[in-house]
Write a structure and sequence with these properties.
The structure is a single chain. The chain is mainly α. It has a domain of about 150 residues. The chain contains nine helices and no strands.
Length: about 240
């Protein structure tokens, strides 16, 4: 038993998603320690570019994304995913989704309080709290990442990752366009959200002993051999029905 647990821990730490998640969170921690209170050169240049691009159409798009990232729209989105997982009796995945949606905003709040970086001037919205990291972007990244991991079939995972990245980038753009955040705030928010979701999903895998199939059903555990027929031919392993 002890050897099996040790082997499971080694397999967990060797996973690519775990290594990426740890690297992303380490980046956020390092950035929080090193980021200056004022803008970086790239922050100032990007902010000026966003000011030059201002027009009524982009204002409307950015304000719509602002609404998606907080308040009633955000609450309904989280609740909708949670209800779907509950009705589908995917309770472990429901717990994982609830975990990332709780830990990410809490971590964002703590880092904001510790870093206390001022926001850019000339905001088109009235956000509360300090600037680093972006709470809207950490929410977008953690939600997009966990939705891909929980729902995207493996055959379509690459396309799903592209959509998740575009959603996160769109939210990051809107926060800088609205002058609610410096560009570096949004990068840190994206790294925080994605890192939390990657690690939470890997922990869910470790706890369940198998990788959930986003298309429905469960994939067979890798440590269980495939059944063998009477002629000693290995039979294909089918998904277990929920």
């Amino acid at each position: 038993m002890q050897l099996a647990e040790s082997g499971g821990r080694r397999a967990f730490t060797m996973r690519a998603d775990v290594r990426l998640g740890v690297a992303l969170l380490a980046f956020v921690a390092a950035a929080a320690l090193l980021i200056p209170s004022g803008p970086l050169e790239i922050d100032a240049s990007w902010s000026e570019l966003m000011l030059d691009l201002r027009n009524a159409g982009l204002d409307a798009i950015a304000l719509a994304l602002n609404a998606v990232g907080h308040g009633i729209v955000r609450a309904l989105t989280i609740a909708g995913v949670g209800v779907f997982l509950l009705v589908a009796r995917r309770l472990l995945e429901l717990g994982t989704f609830a975990f990332v949606q709780s830990v990410t905003p809490f971590a964002t709040f703590v880092i904001k309080s510790l870093v206390d970086r001022p926001r850019p001037p000339g905001q088109l919205v009235h956000p509360s709290g300090s600037s680093f990291p972006s709470g809207h972007v950490s929410y977008a990244a953690t939600t997009a990442t966990i939705l891909v991991l929980l729902f995207a079939p493996l055959a379509h995972r690459r396309a799903a990752w592209v959509l998740a990245a575009l959603a996160t980038i769109a939210m990051a753009w809107s926060r800088t366009y609205l002058q609610a955040h410096w560009l570096s705030d949004t990068v840190a928010g994206a790294a925080l959200g994605a890192g939390v979701s990657l690690l939470a999903y890997a922990l869910m895998d470790l706890a369940s002993g198998h990788r959930p199939d986003p298309a429905g059903g469960e994939l067979a555990r890798p440590d269980v051999p495939a059944p063998v027929d009477g002629d000693a031919h290995q039979l294909p392993v089918t998904r277990q029905e929920r």
